[in-house]
Design brief:
Largest sheet: 4 strands, antiparallel
Oligomer: single chain
Radius of gyration: 22 Å
């Protein structure tokens, strides 16, 4: 049972991590987590090739350790789904975050809801996996049918708890996005 609860907990961690990459109007280095840069033939995360500073609420400055990487970083940001246009001063890449439009906020809210639904599906898959395991050990006679029913009830309670937590996190992040 603990192993399945741990899996469900990891789904929540993954969701929170995904939400961290969604821009909520303030500059946050985590929004660049998914960007990979070609660094001498291997795709490397942006944090692996540069320092990322947040001088103010609307600006990110990416300073690569190797100044030859500026163009590659610019290219990676342009091809990402961030919707930001990078500027460079020859030594670093500067990202100015514009205020979110109402349309973009609604788009992000839909994306948040979609990620929440995907997390719920993963939770339900863990529940199915756990229930299959309980049925298997019940059938083999390792536990009684009553114990099997109790375990299935515990699995359902855990599932409900984690789905409620997902709903709460989706609602919180949506409020954060929709707040002007």
């Amino acid at each position: 049972m603990e192993a399945y609860e741990e899996k469900m907990g990891k789904v929540i961690e993954s969701l929170v991590s995904d939400f961290g990459t969604i821009r909520a109007g303030r500059a946050n280095p985590r929004m660049l987590d998914k960007i990979k840069v070609d660094y001498y033939g291997s795709m490397t995360g942006l944090q692996g090739v540069a320092n990322i500073n947040v001088p103010d609420a609307k600006t990110l400055i990416i300073t690569p350790w190797d100044s030859k990487m500026v163009k590659d970083i610019e290219k990676a940001i342009n091809t990402s789904d961030l919707g930001l246009t990078p500027n460079n001063d020859g030594k670093s890449v500067i990202l100015n975050l514009p205020d979110l439009t109402e349309e973009r906020r609604k788009e992000l809210a839909k994306d948040i809801k979609k990620k929440g639904e995907e997390a719920k599906v993963r939770i339900r898959n863990v529940r199915r996996e756990a229930n299959d395991e309980v049925k298997k050990i019940t059938k083999s006679g390792e536990i009684s049918e009553d114990e099997g029913k109790d375990k299935e009830d515990a699995i359902q309670k855990a599932t409900d708890k984690y789905i409620k937590e997902i709903d709460s996190k989706v609602e919180t992040k949506t409020k954060e996005i929709m707040t002007v």
